[in-house]
Write a structure and sequence with these properties.
Elements: H1 2-50, H2 55-78, H3 85-112, H4 117-140, E1 153-158, H5 160-167, E2 173-177, E3 190-195, E4 201-213, H6 216-222, E5 255-267, E6 276-277
Parallel strand pairs: 1-3, 1-6
Antiparallel strand pairs: 2-5, 3-4, 4-5
Helix pairs in contact: 1-2, 1-4, 2-3, 3-4
Length: about 280
């Protein structure tokens, strides 16, 4: 009986979290759709009223501009999808292959029987909003939602020597424990390194790849070119060099090789509010 109660509570909690996420997803979609709508209306008004083009080419051009804007921002921020951009755009274009003829000929017919052109455009936009959200949410991005979280910026400290090697572009891989703090890292995240010898010196880097290993022995075996780890050409490199920082008993959850590229160097910089100390 107790297990059933626990399962029921977990189910309620999951449903509540899902509902909350879905609510905010709809809000973001609405927000970007409104901005896309502004672009569509503005371009339509310019072409239809200011330049006096026919309704259908004015509408067609305005909706194309709206689609590009809406797809780009919803893919990145609303659905946070890592789905191949060309595949996702292809499925989105397929939707518009069906929607545009229907809306163009249907809207043109309404305008020809006396409906105001702007009103027809607004009605087509509302129909577009509802059907496009359903298409993207339940088909295009259904299996890839939240697979590409937004990047974040984190802080890490480094001793003077490895700091300078990253600054010079010599060191390309930072080695850390795969602990709870590092498990939150993702490719694309920014890392701001602070020089422990002079905390006014900072380096901003971008994570290009993350490789997890069971131990530093595996990590060192994987990277044949030890200069990437910060060693000089011909210098003897041993995984035991890392034990002075991380003894074997601390490596129980594995270790992480963080491949980085230098973005910028600066002094006396302050971490932004969204940065999190690691």
């Amino acid at each position: 009986m107790e297990n059933e109660v626990i399962k029921e509570e977990k189910a309620k909690s999951t449903k509540k979290k899902f509902d909350k996420n879905e609510f905010f997803r709809v809000l973001k979609f609405v927000g970007f759709s409104i901005s896309a709508g502004v672009i569509q209306i503005a371009s339509f008004e310019i072409l239809y009223h200011a330049i006096n083009w026919l309704w259908w080419p004015s509408y067609l051009i305005s909706i194309i501009l709206s689609v590009i804007w809406n797809f780009t921002f919803n893919r990145k921020f609303t659905f946070q999808s890592a789905n191949n951009v060309y595949v996702a755009m292809g499925w989105t274009l397929l939707y518009y292959v069906a929607f545009i003829p229907v809306s163009v000929f249907g809207g043109d017919a309404l305008e020809n029987i006396g409906w105001h052109g702007t009103l027809v455009t607004v009605l087509m936009m509302l129909l577009n909003f509802v059907t496009e959200f359903a298409w993207q949410r339940y088909f295009v991005f259904r299996k890839s939602i939240n697979t590409k979280p937004l990047s974040k910026t984190v802080n890490m400290k480094l001793q003077g020597e490895p700091f300078q090697k990253i600054a010079s572009g010599h060191k390309k891989v930072e080695m850390r424990l795969f602990d709870d703090k590092r498990k939150g890292l993702r490719v694309g995240d920014k890392i701001v390194f602070t020089n422990e010898a002079d905390e006014t010196q900072k380096l901003k880097t971008k994570i290009t790849k993350l490789n997890k290993f069971a131990s530093f022995d595996e990590l060192y075996d994987f990277y044949k070119d030890k200069t990437l780890l910060g060693y000089a050409e011909g210098e003897e490199a041993s995984p035991k060099d890392m034990e002075k920082y991380y003894p074997p008993e601390k490596q129980k959850d594995g270790v992480l090789a963080i491949e980085i590229e230098l973005v910028s160097k600066h002094s006396n910089g302050e971490a932004s509010k969204e940065q999190k100390q690691l």
